[in-house]
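[agent] plan:
  1. take the single chain provided in the ticket
  2. run structure prediction with default settings
  3. attach structure tokens to the ticket
  4. add a short note for the reviewer (M.T.)
[agent] executing step 1
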Amino acid sequence: MVFSAALTSKRRFGSRIMTAAIAAAIAFAAPGAAQAKTYLVNGILSATAIGYGFKNLKKKIPGSSLFLMVTGIEAGSIRQTIVKDIRKRHAADPTEQFTLAGISAGANVVLQVAQEVAKDGIPIHYLAIVEGDGGSLPGNVANADNFICAQRGALCNMKSVSGANTIRVNTGHIDMGNSPEVHNRVVANAR
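[agent] step 2 finished; step 3 output follows
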């Protein structure tokens, strides 16, 4: 009889734990508790010892994904990987918010990703373009900053992106990936 009472008590306790776990899962998935994903894309040579790009920025945004390049040939596969992941995540949770940030050749990749998912009507919460080749924002981007060198210098291209807020940064093209001004804006806007 004592064994039977102990077993019944254990089942009730287990049932309470299961109920609490289910309630927590529902609350986590409920509207208003939207998930967020940030994708960071570095430029050419960022996968080598001399390139750091957004490696330090990634440390400031938990759960973000960082993509590195060596030659730029990787840009197409990086773009496809991010587009596929955004589509999958959006299908699972249409309230999820997406942030894209890229530097140099990576800036071109994130702009292309935004253009690609615009065809599916998937919104991009924030887009950070750091010293990219310019262009124009698609209509699915809610907020965008275009970071450019404040002064002409080696590798600085200073291209505009129509529809984006242009921010001039007092550093060179390569060092912009580690600029506190860039980091602060991206971190503040990442969801």
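[agent] step 4 note for reviewer: The chain has two domains: 1-33, 35-189.
[agent] ticket updated
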